[in-house]
Design goal:
Elements lengths: L1 H7 L17 E2 L3 E2 H5 L27 H5 L6 E3 L6 H12 L5 H15 L9 E4 L4 H7 L3 H13 L2 E2 L4 E3 L11 H8 L3 E3 L2 H4 L4 E7 L4 H12 L5 E7 L1
Parallel strand pairs: 3-9, 4-5, 4-8, 8-9
Antiparallel strand pairs: 1-2, 6-7
C-alpha cells in the first residue's frame, strides 16, 4: 500500500521539489540531504551580543560594530544559521505557506546548536516564544516561534510559557522597514501578564529570525522591567 501511495503521490523536497528517497536520503522526510547540506551555518567566533560571526577587526572587543552602535536589551543572542539561501526559503515556507510541520525539522538545527556550542540551557528557567498579535495569529493560524520553542522545551525538559508575554499592539510587519524604523515600530508592543511568574527567573526567548534585534530587544526589555533576570535569545537564523 505504501509503495502505491509513493508512486501516486511522491514526496518531494520542500526546497528543490525533487522527489525524496526513503531514509537515510531525507531529513525528517520534507527536505533532501543535498538541500540540508546547503544550509549556511553560523560559525564562531560569535558576537557576544547578537550572535553573528565576528569579523577579524572585532575579535578583541568580542562584539560586532552594529551592536556597539545600538546596544540591545537581551543579554546575548544565538543563531545556528545565516539567514540566506535554503534556510531563508524554508523559513518562508514555514511561516507563510502553512507548513507548520517544518517546525520539527527546523528545531533540530537549534537543538544541535545548543549541544554543539554548550549553550547554557541548564541556566534557563523558562522558554518563552516571541508572541504574535491576535490579529496576525488569526491570519496565520499558528505562531512559528511557539512551535519551535515547544520542540526545544521537550528536548531539554524546560517549561515553555506561551501566554505570559503578550503582544498587545498590532504593528506593521518589520520586513519592509529600515533599521531605525523597526525599533520605533515595535516599541511598546509587549506586556507581561503575570510578573510574579518570571520574577528573578532566567528566560530563553525563541523566535525564527533575528535581523536588527529590535523585536527581541523590546521583548527582553519588557521581561526585565517585569523582574526577569537573564534574558537570552535563540533564533533559527540571523
Amino acid at each position: 500500500m505504501r509503495a502505491i501511495v509513493d508512486i501516486v503521490y511522491p514526496a518531494t523536497c520542500v526546497v528543490c521539489k525533487n522527489r525524496l528517497q526513503r531514509k537515510p536520503s531525507s531529513i525528517e522526510k520534507p527536505i533532501c540531504l543535498e538541500c540540508w547540506g546547503k544550509i549556511k551555518r553560523n560559525m564562531p567566533p560569535f558576537c557576544h551580543s547578537c550572535g553573528r560571526q565576528l569579523a577579524k577587526n572585532n575579535l578583541a572587543k568580542g562584539i560586532c560594530y552594529n551592536c556597539i552602535k545600538k546596544p540591545l536589551h537581551f543579554d546575548r543572542a544565538f543563531s545556528p544559521c545565516v539567514y540566506e539561501g535554503v534556510i531563508q526559503n524554508l523559513i518562508h515556507e514555514f511561516k507563510y505557506k502553512n507548513k507548520d510541520y517544518l517546525g520539527l525539522t527546523l528545531s533540530r538545527l537549534m537543538v544541535e546548536f545548543i549541544r554543539e556550542y554548550n549553550m547554557p540551557i541548564e541556566l534557563m528557567d523558562f522558554i518563552i516564544p516571541i508572541p504574535l498579535h491576535k490579529t496576525r495569529l488569526r491570519e496565520r493560524e499558528f505562531n512559528q516561534a511557539q512551535i519551535l520553542s515547544n520542540h526545544i522545551s521537550a528536548e531539554f525538559n524546560k517549561k515553555a510559557i506561551n501566554n505570559n508575554l503578550i503582544r498587545r499592539r498590532h504593528t506593521n510587519t518589520q520586513t519592509d522597514l529600515e533599521d531605525t524604523q523597526r525599533f520605533l515600530n515595535i516599541k511598546g508592543s509587549f506586556s507581561v501578564d503575570n510578573k510574579e511568574a518570571i520574577k528573578s527567573k532566567n528566560i530563553l526567548l525563541v523566535d525564527d529570525v533575528l535581523t536588527t534585534g529590535a523585536t527581541s530587544s523590546e521583548a527582553a526589555y519588557v521581561l526585565k522591567e517585569a523582574g526577569a533576570n537573564i534574558v537570552f535569545v535563540l533564533t533559527l537564523a540571523n
